[in-house]
Design brief:
alpha/beta; TIM Barrel; six-stranded parallel beta sheet; three-stranded parallel beta sheet; 11 helices; 9 strands; 43% helix; globular
Length: 254
């Protein structure tokens, strides 16, 4: 599996505090079946912001530590950016990192409020050639209340990433139900861990993918965890969701 949303860098945000915790998290990821991951520390005003170059340097340092411990996990760098106007300027200035330097940007929305400029910010990113991957859409109150909001973003050309623990009820019943709904409607492109530590916010990828496979079939589960994430880290094109197909099928894949 390839994990495109992960908080593993020590002492950077609300992920591991020490290198030992980072190594422990890496071991758990490998046990879950992950061989490649993108470190995506938060890019918002709650944490000290580190530039794209600084994040890449920290990833290289952690990679060297993992190699010394013979942990077969390949790391790339990125950010999880909280949505706001001006993200294009941040990318151009080298402050904000896309996923492995690709056209794909992991984009977080506000959890309890819908930013009025959401559609405009996404339009500007798409016009610049950046493809936002909406992180954990199942967690946002506005989408929990009305999944049509996500459909409108899909029509703008965004992609989506479901957090593994959501399918297991680790983030609450409401989030779990929303995750199931979005999967059944075909609104999800990738599943990632959004792990913050081996014990606190653990990966939970293996078990969640078993749930996804039961719901959608093994082939689609592999698309969610292997094929599409590989396209992201390789900067290859992922076909946008066919919203017309959803409407023709009554809002769900058959």
């Amino acid at each position: 599996m390839i994990d495109i949303h992960l908080h593993i860098l020590p002492g950077v945000d609300d992920g591991p505090e020490t290198i030992e915790e980072s190594v422990a998290l890496a071991r758990v990821l490998v046990q879950e079946g992950v061989h490649t991951a993108v470190a995506t520390p938060h890019y918002n005003d709650l944490f000290q912001q580190h530039s794209a170059a600084e994040i890449k340097e920290r990833v290289n340092e952690l990679q060297q530590t993992l190699d010394r411990h013979h942990i077969p996990l390949c790391l790339f760098s990125g950010h999880e950016a909280l949505i706001k106007p001006g993200l294009i300027d941040d990318i151009q200035a080298g402050r904000l990192a896309t996923l492995n330097g690709s056209r794909y940007l992991l984009l977080e929305l506000w959890h309890n409020d819908w930013l009025p400029e959401t559609e405009r910010v996404i339009f500007e990113l798409r016009a610049f050639g950046i493809i936002p991957i909406i992180a954990h859409p199942e967690c946002y109150r506005a989408i929990q209340q009305d999944s049509h909001r996500l459909l409108l973003l899909l029509e703008q050309g965004v992609l989506t990433q479901l957090t593994a623990g959501s399918l297991l009820g680790m983030l609450g019943n409401t989030t779990c139900k929303c995750a199931e709904t979005l999967l059944k409607k075909g609104y999800i492109h990738c599943i990632a861990s959004d792990a913050h530590g081996p014990g606190r916010r653990p990966p939970a990828l293996k078990q969640s993918l078993e749930v996804a496979a039961h719901m959608l079939g093994i082939v689609e589960a592999q698309q969610l965890s292997v094929k599409r994430p590989a396209y992201v880290v390789k900067n290859e094109e992922i076909s946008a969701v066919s919203t017309r197909e959803f409407r023709q099928q009554g809002g769900e894949r058959r």
